[in-house]
Specification:
Elements (H helix, E strand, L loop, with lengths): L1 H21 L6 E2 L2 E2 L5 H13 L2 E5 L2 E5 L1 H4 L1 E3 L1 H10 L3 E2 L3 E3 L1 H9 L2 E2 L6 E5 L4 E5 L4 E4 L1 H11 L10 E3 L4 H17 L3 E5 L3 E5 L1 H7 E6 L4 E6 L1 H11 L8 E3 L1 H16 L6 E4 L1 E3 L10 E6 L4 E6 L2 E9 L9 E4 L2 E8 L4 E12 L4 E7 L2 E3 L5 E3 L14 E3 L3 H8 L5 E5 L1
Parallel strand pairs: 1-6, 13-18, 20-30, 26-29
Antiparallel strand pairs: 1-2, 3-4, 5-7, 8-11, 9-10, 11-12, 13-14, 15-16, 17-19, 20-21, 21-22, 22-29, 23-30, 24-25, 25-26, 27-28
Helix pairs in contact: 2-4, 7-10
Length: about 425
């Protein structure tokens, strides 16, 4: 009986030692995966298969699969095998999370956006508004590391913590643009009228005329002015300086105004604009498709075509017989005409009226000349241009009359204003 007991104990010890040498102990797990009783001969191939399994990551109902190498993780198969073969209980896998792991995970972005971020211009305050509409996420790398260690060897996806990405680069750029725009519109502009008298354009008016445009492709801002609004502001502020003869070149002023606000936007302080008042026509330019205006008080001729002022000429009008204001048209033309009243030649003659008081044509022509007894040509002084010196006609300077003659046709309207 004693021998039987000894034999049984011996067999049990032998069985235990055999199992211990060839099988993993009970309650053995690789991380959270139960592997109790696995043959040690099968352990190495098993670990090799597990090391090749992709890591499935679930983010907002989407699944992504990565190899350990793609994530920057090194699986030390031999060390894991050694610890499992000699240890007991729950043995975590030997996973080395390299610096690449944190860099790669940090740079992974998971885009669930329906709309892109956008920048719009607020038409009321002339500033940019940044609308963040993207839905982009990044994985919490530390949480992913913990979950990979716990889930290693198991099938199915893990759902790590994620953080929504708030791209602040464009927001910072918009904030900087708005800071510059506040500088542009927050200061008054001072107009020096004829270089002496100062007229102030308040910040309120500067904001009203300011135009802001944002280019999504280049992420650049362009500043401009609303020329219609600027014209209304200038008309209001300079009403005491302008009259029927004096006006402001609004196109040039608008260009200078744009240059000023552009300088401000670029950080170059600029507060003053010089406004030069100049003589202006009485016509709007739309009275006829093509016509001539003559202003007697200014001693100027204005030529219009298709709504545009195309040329201005100095003239000399009637002194001995005043040039009559009114609406006329070119009646006839001649490259050179002779006045038997004044005994002078009138090059580039363009008659516009048959005056009943003098029973003669009044016309536009070059400064007249006459021939003296020696046959020498004597011309009226050129400094007559700009003041009345004629007998009712309209004289143009040498060279300019030829230009007008070539441009005007018989029938071209002539509007004469006092």
């Amino acid at each position: 009986m004693k021998r039987l007991v000894i034999l049984s104990v011996g067999l049990a010890i032998i069985s235990f030692l055999y199992y211990r040498m060839n099988y993993l102990p009970r309650n053995m797990s690789l991380g959270s995966v139960e592997i109790s009783g696995m043959r040690k001969a099968d352990l190495l191939p098993y670990l090799a298969r597990v090391g090749q399994m992709p890591v499935a990551v679930k983010i907002h109902e989407r699944q992504y699969r990565f190899t350990l190498d793609q994530l920057g993780i090194i699986f030390d198969l031999n060390d894991t095998y050694r610890r499992l073969a000699t240890g007991s209980g729950a043995v975590p896998p030997t996973l080395i999370f390299t610096d690449d792991f944190y860099r790669k995970v940090r740079n992974m972005k998971f885009d669930f956006s329906v709309h892109e971020n956008r920048v719009i211009v607020n038409a009321r305050n002339k500033e940019l508004a940044y609308e963040y509409r993207e839905d982009v996420y990044v994985i919490d790398a530390m949480d992913l590391q913990v979950r990979i260690l716990k889930h290693f060897g198991r099938r199915g996806a893990i759902a790590p913590k994620v953080h929504r990405v708030i791209e602040d680069y464009l927001k910072m750029k918009v904030d900087e643009y708005n800071r510059k725009l506040r500088v542009v519109k927050g200061k008054e502009v001072r107009l020096l009228v004829n270089g002496t008298e100062e007229v102030v354009v308040s910040p309120k008016y500067v904001e009203q005329v300011l135009m802001v445009d944002y280019d999504d492709q280049t992420e650049q801002v362009k500043v401009d002015v609303d020329r219609v609004r600027l014209g209304a502001v200038i008309d209001s502020l300079l009403s005491g300086y302008v009259n029927k003869d004096l006006g402001v070149d609004k196109d040039r002023l608008a260009e200078n105004f744009v240059s000023l606000i552009d300088s401000r936007f670029k950080g170059q302080p600029s507060d003053y604009l010089i406004v030069s008042l100049k003589e202006k026509p009485n016509s709007s330019g739309t009275e006829h498709d093509k016509f001539i205006e003559i202003d007697l008080s200014q001693q100027k001729m204005y030529r219009f075509e298709k709504g545009r002022l195309i040329a201005v000429h100095g003239v000399s009008t009637g002194l001995y017989y005043p040039t009559p204001p009114g609406k006329y048209k070119i009646l006839n033309k001649a490259t050179n005409a002779f006045s038997d009243i004044y005994n002078v030649w009138m090059p580039y003659w363009m008659a516009f009226s048959l005056d009943p008081k003098v029973n003669a044509y009044l016309g536009i022509h070059e400064l007249p000349y006459w021939i003296d007894y020696s046959g020498r040509e004597i011309r009226r002084p050129r400094d007559f241009i700009g003041s009345p010196h004629t007998g009712g006609c309209v004289s143009l300077d040498v060279g300019e009359a030829e230009v007008v003659y070539a441009w005007a046709d018989v029938g071209t309207p002539v509007l004469i204003y006092e």
